[in-house]
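Journal club side-thread
Mid-discussion, someone asked how the predicted structure for our own chain would compare to the paper's figures. Pasting it here so we can look after the session.
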Amino acid sequence: MSYFTHPARRPGATRAGSTLLVPLHALNALGGTVVRKFPRRNFLHLAAAALPALSRIARAQTYPARPVLMIGPFAAGGPSDVAARIVAEHMSRVLGQQFVIENVGGAGGTTGSIRAMRANPEGNAPEHAC
């Protein structure tokens, strides 16, 4: 049986502020309200059970969701182009998305770097510089 401490004085008690243990079903007869504590352990169990439900709601998209454009700041056929194509082929197999390499040569790599800097900020146009 559950008990609740009621601030009523015990019959025959001499000290003020003594409490009386009252069964919960009899508390309404005394005109009190039931205040039940929610133990921390029970709260943590409830929170742990609700966590998977919340993670299903807020799920991120898989990256990359579209083909990825890799911008090379040097001319095609050079060593950085070959390295970028090898890396792009491996990433394409692992991530299951198409990787396109665009070589923008000129000004010692500055033109390609500026092109990568001005690309859409969605993360689908990384610059490869080897």
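Post-session note: Confidence is low (pLDDT under 50) at residues 12-18.
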